[in-house]
Amino acid sequence: MEHFILNKRADITKITVGHERIPLLIIDDFFENHETLIEQAGDGSLFISDAKNFYPGKRRIVHSNYANQICAHYFSLLNGYFGIEQARCARSIASAYAISDMQPKQLRPMQMLPHFDTTDTNQLAVVHYLCHVEHGGTSFYRHRASNFEVITTDRLVGYASTLKKEAMANQLHLNPCYMNGSNDMFEQIATVKAKMNRAIIYPSNALHSGDVNSALGLSLDPQKGRLTVGSFIELV
Question: Which of 69, 95, 220, 227 is a Cys-bridge partner for 231, taking CB atoms 3.0 to 4.6 Å apart?
Answer without folding.
Answer: 95
